[in-house]
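Need residues for this backbone.
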């Protein structure tokens, strides 16, 4: 999984990153891309949460959601 954004803040004491401004999450092995404006990543658990609108596309479908939770280092994906 690759994640990039325009801005990010790393909180060393919490081992978390807050990403803002065109957050792009890509899983090339599965062929999907997700886009949102803000996401929080917990580096210890591998969980990524966004409470902003999420758009995404993959080889067989497109999605639009009010938020998402990626758990277990990218193996599970829940759209809100």
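Answer:
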């Amino acid at each position: 999984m690759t994640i990039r954004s325009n801005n990010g803040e790393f909180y060393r004491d919490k081992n978390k990153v807050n990403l803002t401004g065109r957050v792009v999450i890509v899983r090339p092995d599965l062929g999907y891309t997700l886009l949102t404006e803000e996401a929080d990543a917990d580096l210890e658990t591998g969980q990524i949460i966004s409470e902003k609108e999420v758009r995404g596309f993959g080889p067989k479908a497109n999605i639009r959601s009010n938020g998402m939770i990626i758990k277990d280092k990218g193996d599970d994906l829940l759209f809100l």
